[in-house]
Specification:
mainly beta; Pectate Lyase C-like; 15-stranded parallel beta sheet; 5 helices; 24 strands; globular; hydrolase; Pectinesterase; Pectinesterase_cat; aspartyl esterase; Pectin_lyas_fold
Length: 341
């Protein structure tokens, strides 16, 4: 089923503003640093953020470590304090599996480092092919280019799927990221996640998994593929499962043609685009079979619903609001602003 949003009357507080120009000021007024949040944060988060530790990574020396992997290995198992791993500019050819809570990976916003690896489904399995895998909760990352450098699948190669980032940890936040891949770029796996000011590139099912996530002010760039281009393959398996992807105030663009916003990977996927600018890259049908959903108040050549599949329903204001609020992922209890040093 495709769900269409009715016009919304937004409430105060955690409701995302309808005007994109208001988003940043609204966000900073709600998501303040830990020291200004007091008892509104979960106790574990407040305790972890009280005295963060900084570890510096720099290729060729000059930091605490010369690889990200070594820096993460230095953090004790069962870590309960925020550790900010500050990554100097450069290219880091590493495959990073991170399973320690409260770790932040932070690049230089003026010269973002590249973290790259060429893992494929053939060698590792699809979800384990990721350049970075963030298993544990309270993962934060900002100002990084994450690349899976495997070649563009040609339809003949077996196991060519290649993930750049996999996020199976709960309560994770990603800021100012560029994710580069083709098929299966981002495995938005499980748990509550927040993405802001990210650019995600791919071809087929390049945002997939069973996460419950908000993508705010994030752009989706579709790379041409001779077979098929599909953005989202959200894996909710029943209408009672509380997961889904909510894209708010982003852009869908790129040189591809006939791109589906989503398709059914499992039986009850839930994908919502709100206040998004959709270019002509979008297929006039919008969604492939049995996909959900598309909100109103999107703009651009690709936002027209005149040729959409017929199994559509308009949401009431009450139904629509749950997807355009930080409460969708319970963010006020755990979400913090982008890190600073």
């Amino acid at each position: 089923m495709v769900l269409l949003f009715a016009p919304l009357v937004l409430s105060q507080g955690t409701q995302i503003p309808a005007q994109r120009s208001q988003v940043n000021s609204w966000f900073t007024s709600i998501i303040k640093p830990a020291k200004q949040r007091g008892r509104t944060l979960d106790p574990d988060v407040a305790k972890a953020e009280a005295n963060p530790k900084i570890i510096k990574v720099k290729k060729g020396g000059g930091g605490n470590f010369d690889t990200i992997t070594k820096a993460i290995a230095s953090v004790p198992i069962g870590n309960n304090k925020r550790v900010i791993i500050s990554i100097a500019p450069g290219v880091y050819k590493e495959k990073i599996d991170r399973n320690k809570p409260f770790i932040t990976l932070m690049g230089n916003p003026k010269n973002m480092p590249n973290v790259t690896f060429d893992g494929t489904a053939k060698k590792y399995g699809t979800v384990d092919s990721a350049t970075i895998i963030a298993f544990s909760s309270y993962f934060v990352a900002a100002y990084l280019n994450i690349v899976n450098s495997s070649p563009h699948p040609n339809g003949k190669m077996q196991g060519a799927q290649a993930v750049a980032l996999r996020v199976p940890g709960d309560r994770s936040a990603i800021y100012n990221f560029n994710l580069y891949g083709f098929q299966d770029t981002l495995c938005d796996d499980r748990g509550n996640h927040f993405y802001k000011n990210c650019n995600i590139r791919g071809t087929v099912d390049f945002i997939f998994g069973r996460g419950k996530s908000i993508y705010l002010d994030s752009d989706i760039y579709v790379v041409p593929d001779p077979r098929l281009t599909v953005i989202a393959a959200q894996a909710r398996e029943s209408s009672s499962e509380d997961t889904g992807y909510s894209f708010v105030h982003g852009r869908v663009y790129g040189p591809a043609k006939g791109t589906f916003l989503g398709r059914a990977w499992s039986s009850s996927p839930r994908v919502v685009f709100s206040y998004s600018n959709m270019g002509k890259v979008v297929n006039p049908a919008g969604w492939s079979h049995n996909n959900q959903t598309k909100p109103s108040q999107c703009t651009g050549e690709g936002s027209s619903t005149s040729k959409w599949v017929p199994f559509a329903k308009k949401l009431t204001d009450k139904e629509a609001k749950q997807f355009i609020t930080l409460d969708f992922i319970g963010a006020t209890k755990w979400l913090l602003p982008p890190p600073t040093i």
